[in-house]
Amino acid sequence: MKRFADLFSAIDQSTKTTVKVDALARYFAEAPEQDRLWTIALFSGRRPRRAVTTTRLREWGAEMAGIPLWLFEECYPIVGDLAETIALVLPPAETRDDRPLAAWITDLRALSDADEDARRTFVEEAWTTLGGTERFLFNKLITGGFRMGVSQKLMTRALARATGRSEAELAHRLMGNWQPDTTSWDALIEADDPGADASRPYPFYLAYALEGTPEDLGATDDWRAEWKWDGIRGQLILRDGQYFVWSRGEELMTDRFPELARACDYLPDGTVLDGELLVWKAASDSPASFNALQKRIGRKTVPKKLLAEAPVVLHAYDLLEWGGQDLRETPFATRRALLENACSDLPPEAPVRLSPQLDFDSWDVLADLRADARAEQAEGLMLKRADSPYLAGRKKGDWWKWKLDPLTIDAVMIYAQSGHGRRANLFTDFTFAVRSGNDLVPFTKAYSGLTDAEFREITAWVRKNTLQRFGPVRQVTPHHVFEIAFEGIQESPRHKSGVALRFPRMSRWRKDKPLQEANTLDDLKDMLRIYG
Amino acid sequence: MAREPVLTFTDKGIYCAAGNFYIDPWRPVDRALITHGHADHARPGHGSYLATHAALPVMRHRLGSISAQGTAFGEQIIINDARVSFHPAGHVPGSAQIRVEAGGEVWVASGDYKTEADGLSEAFEPVRCQHFITESTFGLPVFNWQPQKNVAQQINDWWAGCARAGKTAFLGAYALGKAQRLLTLLDAGIGPILTHGAVEATNRVLREQGIVLPETVQATADIRPKDHPGAIVLAPPSALGSAWARRFGPQESAFASGWMQLRGVRRRRAGDRGFVISDHADWTGLLGAIRETGAENIYVTHGYTEIFSRYLNENGWNAQIVPTEFGDDAADPEDEA
After folding, report:
1. How far apart are CA B177 and CA A350, in angstroms?
2. What is d(CA A321, CA A415) in angstroms, rounded to the nearest whole number?
3. Residue A422: its chain B contacts at CB < 8 A?
4. B265/chain A closest Cα distance in angstroms
5. pLDDT band at residue B328 under the 50/70/90 scheme
6. Fewest beta carbons less than 10 Å away: which of A258, A409, B73, B220?
């Protein structure tokens, strides 16, 4: 565990990419094979099945620390991480153990079959044996969630350096459904046939946001434009007579979208599509709002009624595999032509549609189209270079998203709550209101958009201007006005104000605006009428 | 008729009616007793100041021309109907707990304190009393400090690593107290010790009053980083990553504070490293200090007041939260802890 803890510390302590990649590459070159596999698994969101509930962990931790459970529960939100809270309240370790990571994981997995007394004994012994970072990581193995500043991209780069293989190949090998105990280092990284797994997706190609205007991109002839849909990016794989749906976050979502099974009836085996999952309204032949899709995302199994109310269709915009051939190196325009051909005979009941391309012969024409994106239920436009290959990850140059400017409203801060994790000890979660006569009507929360320095400044202000406390929430003197930016507005009976915003964030601290100049509930309702 | 308490909590700060004075007041008053020179305790504008001899030079340096009187630790002073004495708080050089006795009752306002002797500040002394006012900056069981020598080792190891890699080590720390404490922990064998002007100004004041600090060189505008290979630079946290720091070329930065105990804060505030070292008492230190006073009545201020006082009440003390509507005035309380 010490080697893994040292790796973790090296990565956690640095903000510099090169330092992180160096540490990872060294680890992949030196650590025992099973440890390497598990490290890749943990850093890509795969973890051993949870053998102990977090409730038990809290109880055992508090008891061993000699503090009442309520005090432990008070500490947790301040620290922001359960594994860390437990590691901090416990007394220092008494002995040392230096078994490798994989050995600890094997023991943890065996716990699933043990009774509660045995589990407790194991966990308490681990706590007395492991100190500092190792204890924290042991807790993390149980609670999961190794988000620690190592992106898949960084890990792939380090693996490439340690193994001499290309990043693109490794990225593809690491995708999909593998687990450390059903594969080996050789099978995952070294063996010749990485395509053996029918469900394995391609790494998604992600676009950067276009800053400014598209004139700098050059001649319009070199570019293709599409609507940027407000749905979920998804990859639909048809292989071996089966279908698989992957999210951009590399989550297998097949079971959540049973209607896509029928894609096998209309498209040949050996096809992989990249597109947007949208709830489709047959009556108006248009996409429903993101809200409708949200109901589907939350459900692992979909009730029939919901399936009928909110049917999902894949809007395909790229073809990554055709006839079992990987097309990613083929220019976009060619892939697109093949895609249009493949989709040309699809009947309306097929769960796949071609996402249209937009006609434009000047950037001005395209700018006008973009201005109408909201009417099309789109967030803006996507620009793709006609000769671009399908790259892996977020890369600059060939693909751009050109989103609509957000909607904005000036609102008054009325409640503040402290953040957790990286933002523990700072007030970062705020509730905002609009004016209505002499009242203030809360209508949204926002958590992001300020700099660390601004969060520190507002935190000092909140401490001095608290009117009332409700648990962790503080009501503050209505004084500060913030510009809230958001992507969409919807009617919502669940909110006091009657509206719900999409992606609200603080875009500017309007120190220049007095309270009286904040927007009103009527302004908000006008926006709902126009954009809702 | 209930007797007026010896100390009361007013909108100007802690007030003693028997002596007609305030302790660390927030607003201008005629007579202020000051526990130590940090800005949220020693504020400008009071008619007269009383502090320890060791705390006064820094206060004069920061507040300019003030009407101030010094006292020795343990010296008995009669102010109207109150008997007052100052006792070491171990927070920074000269920092004191203020003992106030009137009508047979003893109260202690402890200001900021830590219980581990740091070798620089006068070591914390428990003072027996019936009423104890305590801070709670780190009043949660997740805050437990390692012995100072362990942290010193970590800092020196880091510095030596930077020096080997040809980098300048920037260590961010509060300019009064923490910076000087760190100075005394550094292993001067590793390389030269440079200071930011704000740190050096305080060094100068403390040296003049007889406190021995290692040799330092102020990193002025005309200093040539090349002349000081393998250096460590002590600077206020705000100077880390500034243009002033960047001209030193390849560098690593670290931040030394009790808040570095929390990974979230460490990732937000520390550049490359965070060292857990504080001039405030940790959880064990707070509870130990309270126990040793023998006081039954505890007044909790500055920090996790609600949680800490609830815990005290459940464990046999009569604890209450001191209303601090003027709260932590420091723009960035993390910087000074």
Report:
1. 72
2. 51
3. 264-265, 267-268
4. 5
5. very low
6. B220
Domain limits of chain B? 7-142+280-321, 148-275
Kindly identify which residue of chain A lies nearest to residue B312, measuring between CA atoms.
A71
Residue B128: pLDDT band (50, 70, 90) is very high
pLDDT in tens, A105-136: 999 988 888 899 999 999 999 999 998 899 99
Can you list the positions of beta strands (E) in B257-331? Answer: 273-275, 297-303, 318-321
A140 inside 8 A of chain B by CB:
no
Predicted confidence at residue A51, as pLDDT, reads: 83
Q: Are B135 and B90 in contact (CB under 8 A)?
A: no
For testing contact with chain B, the best of A6, A73, A86, A88 (most B CBs within 10 A): A88
Nearest-CB residue to B268 (from A65, A75, A423): A423
Q: Which of A4-13, A23-32, A321-330 has the least mean pLDDT? A: A4-13
Q: Which of A13, A67, A426 sits opposite B272 (nearest CB)?
A: A13
CATH second-level architecture of B7-142+280-321? 4-Layer Sandwich (3.60)
Whether A10 contacts chain B with CB within 8 A: no
For A229-241, what is each residue's pLDDT tens digit?
Answer: 989 999 999 998 8
Residue corresponding to tokens 């050109």: A402
- Cα separation, B85 vs B71, in Å, equals 8
Of B144, B167, B193, which is closest to residue B272 (Cα–Cα)? B167
The answer regarding whether domain B148-275 maps to CATH 3.10.180.10 reads no
Query: A384 vs chain B: nearest CA distance in angstroms?
Result: 36
- Decide if B7-142+280-321 and B148-275 have a common fold: no
Question: What residues form DSSP beta bridges with A486?
Answer: A407
Closest chain A residue to B259, measured at CA: A425
Minimal C-alpha gap between A79 and chain B (Å): 6
User: What order do you get walking across the sheet with B31-33 strand by strand?
Assistant: B7-10, B13-16, B21-23, B31-33, B48-52, B68-71
